[in-house]
Amino acid sequence: MNYRICLSFLFLFTVLFATIGCQKENNCIERPNPNCICTQEYNPVIGCNGKTYGNPCLAECVGVSYTYPMDCGTVAPNCIERPNPDCLCTMEYDPVCGCNGKTYSNACMAGCAGITSWTAGACN
Asked: Signal peptide span per the entry (predicted)?
């Protein structure tokens, strides 16, 4: 009888700690780095906290893990332009098609024009 009780407690203990361990892995903890310096390159990423950051470096400065947004491949009907006049980009030619249907010379230029999403290559 004591053997079954001990075995039951062992099983319950194992399940409880396995569940707690999984929950800890899914938590997003911000660990800011106050000495972090980033470029203004626009290459948006989504942080584990659900916030969008202008590039991977900015997410890393806040101290969050991140992922790249999915490429939708279509022109978004609700595309909103929010230009940033202080934005600086290289002259690299790597065209992207903005969600507004306009071609930009690179992703940074699209980001500076305030375009929130784009696809690789020139617009058709």
From this structure: 1-18
Please state, in angstroms and rounded to a whole number, the distance separating the CA atoms of residues 69 and 51: 11
Q: How far is CA 19 from CA 5, 25, 48, in A?
A: 21, 10, 20
Contact 69, 92 (CB under 8 A): no
pTM above 0.70, yes or no: no
Cα separation, 77 vs 2, in Å, equals: 66
How many CB atoms are closer than 10 A to CB 59?
A: 24
Least confident of 14-23, 24-33, 96-105: 14-23
- Answer whether residue 2 shows pLDDT above 80: no
| C-alpha closest to that of 95 among 78, 108, 82, 113 | 108
